[in-house]
Every structure is written in C-alpha cells, then in structure tokens.
C-alpha cells in the first residue's frame, strides 16, 4: 500500500478593499494565519465602492497593523480574486462573515470563484462577537462625521482617518 502523500501547504488569500482595515479584519487575519500558517492580504480597489483612503495608505496601514502576526504578507491585487490567488500561489480564499447577509453574498461569490477555479477552496470564518457589528462602510460613515473611529480600528488607522477627514474638509473651504 503506498504511503499517503503529505498535504500540500496551505496558503490563504484574504481579499478585500480594506478601506479602512478594521479590528474585525485583523481578527480574521490572525485566526486565518493560525489555521493556514501563511496568509496574503490581497488589497484591491473596488470601482463599485467610494474609496476614502488611497490604496497606498491602505497598504501601509495593513503592513503596520499586521507586523506582529507571523506568516502574513500584503499584496496589491487587481482583477479577479481567483487570478490573484493563482498568481500568488494561494490555494484557499478566506472570507469573514458577520451575519446572514454576508453569508448570502459570500456563498454566491464562492460558487462563482469555484466555477472559475475549481482548485481553490473558500473558507468562511465567522466574526468574533465583539467585532460582528463592525464594517468598513460603518467606519467610513463615522469617520466622515468626525466620530470616535478608534472604537472600531487600531489607533494608526484612526489617525489616518482623522488626517484624511481634515484634508477633505480643508479642500471644501
């Protein structure tokens, strides 16, 4: 009887716009790194979303907030997530779920990705309860109103959001 082959190392891709990166994102990345050993955060511009922070700022902030998590890399990815996963050598796509609405959307996306790239698996990680209410959209709204974003994001991200708001308000005068 032949010996079983060792399992292929798992390299997970965690795609998103991360505009801005939240405490919920960091929780998912930490847990994915513990599960898979290697996680690449794939940062993309989403033409369907109104972006607040420039891409370069989001990349820099992700580097800063994940520096202490072993096995995490950051990459800019354009185009289809499955093409980005292939280009980076990832064999798993990780998606965080906050609620049933997220599941509906993400399960459709996972099926679409599987149709395009059957070699990729999608793994859903539920949000930790203390982060389930946080979304980047919510944080952008709070930031644009000058609210306490530090409740939802690390301090370096809160600082970047305050600076961006000040710059935008300065241009409106």
Offer a concise description of the structure.
With 173 residues, the protein is of the alpha/beta class.
Q: Would you give an account of this structure?
A:
The protein is 45% helix and 17% strand. The chain has a single domain (11-172), classed as 3-Layer(aba) Sandwich (Rossmann fold). Helix 2 (55-66) links the parallel strand 2 (38-43) and strand 3 (72-76). It starts with 10 loop residues before the first strand and ends with a helix. The protein is built from six helices and five strands. It is of the alpha/beta class and 173 residues long. The protein has a five-stranded parallel beta sheet with strand order 3-2-1-4-5, sandwiched between helices.
CATH superfamily: HUPs
Portion in beta strands: 15-25%
Low-confidence segments, given as residue ranges, are: none
Structural class, judged by helices and strands? alpha/beta
Question: Which structural traits does this protein have?
Answer:
173 residues, alpha/beta, Rossmann fold
Q: Topology of this protein?
A:
Layout: E1 11-16, H1 23-36, E2 38-43, H2 55-66, E3 72-76, H3 81-88, E4 92-97, H4 100-116, E5 121-126, H5 136-144, H6 155-172
Parallel strand pairs: 1-2, 1-4, 2-3, 4-5
